Amino acid sequence: MMKKSILAALLVFACVSSAFAAVRTVTLSVPGMYCAVCPITVKKALDKVPGVSKVHVSFEKKEAVVTFDDTKTSVKALEEATFEAGYESSLKAPGAEGKTK
Ligand SMILES: [Cu+2]
């Protein structure tokens, strides 16, 4: 009886922790892109990061929308990847969208 409840508790814990291990989508601001080839370089750099499943880079918006598994990589690793490729990037704060310059 006791053992079973411990097992049940472990199972619940496993479910909870896998719920935290979520696929996240973040928007990175990449202000250093100045021509149409830049987004391709940025996309390639982000695609190479393990755990990244989807990358969409917009030259017009100067941003990269990245979908990744946060158990395999982090926003910091993504920023480092673009930096390695020659572009500084930073996480766009939610709500910064549509902000006038
Ligand atoms: Cu360029």
From TrEMBL:
Signal sequence interval, chain numbering: 1-21
Statement: the UniProt record of this protein carries the keyword Metal-binding: yes
Task of the protein: Involved in mercury resistance. Acts as a mercury scavenger that specifically binds to a mercuric ion in the periplasm and probably passes it to the cytoplasmic mercuric reductase MerA via the mercuric transport protein MerT.
Subcellular location: Cell envelope; Periplasm
GO cellular component: cell envelope; periplasmic space
MF terms (GO), sorted A to Z: mercury ion binding; mercury ion transmembrane transporter activity
CDD domains cross-referenced by the UniProt entry: HMA
Main subcellular location of this protein, as a coarse class: other
Keyword field: Mercuric resistance, Mercury, Metal-binding, Periplasm, Signal
Domain HMA, chain residue ranges per copy: 24-90
Any one Pfam family match given in the protein's UniProt record, by short name: HMA
Stated name of the protein: Periplasmic mercury ion-binding protein
